[in-house]
Structure formats: structure tokens, C-alpha cells
Amino acid sequence: MEQIILNNYNNYKSLTEFFRTKNISKILVVCDSAFRFLGNIRLYIENLFVNLNIETVFFSDFQPNPNYESVVNGIASYKNNQCDSILAIGGGSAIDVAKCIKLYVNLPDNCDYLQQTIIPNDIPFIAIPTTAGTGSEATRYAVIYKNGEKQSITDESIIPSAVIFDETVLETLPDYQRKSTMLDAFCHAIESFWSVNSTDESKEFSKKAISLILENYEAYLNNNPSANRKMLEAANAAGKAINITQTTGGHAMCYKLTSLYNIAHGHAAALCVSVLWSYMIENTDRCCDSRGKEYLDKMFEDLSTVLGGCDSKSGADTFNRILMGLQLNIPVVNSDDDYAVLAKSVNPVRLKNNPIKLDEQTIENLYRQILRR
Ligand SMILES: [Fe+2]
Q: What separation in Å is there between the alpha carbon of 57 and the centre of ligand 1?
């Protein structure tokens, strides 16, 4: 089912229409701690009962990297309050929790939801992303943790039925988050383009995201409202691209960087994509995309063209120039042991989507290029 895109014009008129057509009377609002800093949309939601006779039940009992128990509590809240719809407002964690509540709410609650067969439901599910980065509102993926173990959940039916692009939510975004979330979306679009799973459709989403980022990033960094809106659209398009292809080596390599050096996900992903891109252009003879080396060489040229370049190297140069311009810190290596720890941490499943074969030694060398000594 095509995702409906709503906007914030005329005090969220299109959202009001959506509620009316779906006969919504009680919403579970899944929101994170940033909700209280929001302006227009917070007022709209807080006044839903007064203005539209729609009740709201707030659920915020979850942390970043949400755990299974939070999802179970959210499902209980939905059922106990007899809600008929879900609205997620926040970053990736809020949207992921809401996705899992939607996915499991109609299943028997006497055994582990993760072990049960999914029965898709048509509960109206609206997402309002408050960062322009993860694209979680556009994907069939959610990540939660159970007993400390990461659980990757995938199901078509968790894609929100409607998304609202509301640029006002980005007004108060802190500078580092603003930069790193944009880089996350940028990496999604680039990695999707070179993924072995890419299709004509996924490449169109990638192109749209990359073009929107290039055209708007400077104004977005200056908190320009129209550029903020375009960046939300870019993150959504990049999300739609990875919904088809999944991410690749850049994301496979970035996770341990975030935990070891306490840097943001998008920041870490961009550092990885930067070195990976240059390496891959020089090593297309190590191609593992079934479409072959010739395809890969042409693909890297096409990707450069999307970034306004004329040969395969210039796309990577443009990306690096933008990344350097953001003046983010380069993590300093703690000890030589870090390189091996990092190289061993890389998720082999994601590496399978990478168009160039990466062995452990190569990955270690790439980390050596990323980190400062
Ligand atoms: Fe990401």
C-alpha cells in the first residue's frame, strides 16, 4: 500500500482529514522526551480532544535502543485504553517502538511475540519524524533489544500508513544531531545506490534523496524552514531506497565506531562511507555484484553524475568535501587493539550487500584510515 504523505499546512488540515476518514477516536501517541520541546504539532496533539473529540493516550516508557519489555508495555497501554490507532512522533527509537506495537498488538499475549507468526492488521499508523535522518518512517525494519540481544524485525505491514513532513519539528534540533542525521540519510542514499540489491526503482529514490541533500544542505544547516522540509523529504526518499536494498559496508562498519568512541550513528556511517567509497572505486576487480565489473564501473560513474561529477572519483570527492566542511571530530584511537576489535565487529550479513568483497584485513586497513592516532 502506498504511504500517504501529509503536511503541516493550515494547522495540520490533512491530518485532521485523515483522522476523519479513518473514524479515529482514540490514539496511542508514542513519543520520546523531545516531545515537550515541540511547538505546533505538540499543541495540535494536546488539543485533539477539545477540537476534534479524539482522545489521546501518551506512551513514552522506552529508552534509545528500545527493549522488548517497552514494546510489551506499549501493547498493554494500547489494549487497556482501547485505542484504535497509533501515532509515532520522534526519532528512530519512537518510530521503531510504535512499529512493533502495531505489528504485535493483535497477537496472543501469552507467548513471546518474536516467536509468533505475524497476522497483518490495518490499524491506522501515522509517523511524524522529528529528525531528518533515519528514514525509519519509510522502512519495513525495526530494531529492538531482548535480554541485551539485538532483534532485527522485518515486515511490510509495519510501514506507517501515513507520514507527516513537518519542518517546524526541526527548528530546535541541536547542531551535532542536525549534521549527523543528515549524514545518515546521505549514507543511506549512497549505500543503497551501490548495493548489490539495487533496482531502477531504488536508484530513483537514491537520486531524489542525494539531489535534495545537495541542493538544501547549506540552508538546512542554517535552520532554514524550507530546507528543513526538503531534508525530511530526502530522509524519507533515502529510507524508501534502503527499504528495497538494505544498507551495505558503510553501515556494517559504523556500529562499533559509535559505541567505542561515543559518536552519533550518521557521523560514524559517513566516516566509513568516505574511506569505503575511495577504496571501492580503485578495486572494482574485486566485484561481487552479479551484474559484473563493467556494471560496477558504470554504476560508480552514474553515482558521481548524481553528485554533479564527471568521473567516478568526483562523487567521492564531493562527499568528502561536504563531510570535511561539517568540521566533525575524528575519533582518536585508544590503542592498537582497537583496529582488530573493530574489524571483528563488522556484521557479515550487511557486508553481503556490498558490491566489493571486503576481507578482515581490508576492513582493518579502512579503519586505520578513519581514525586519528
Ligand atoms: Fe543509518
A: 30
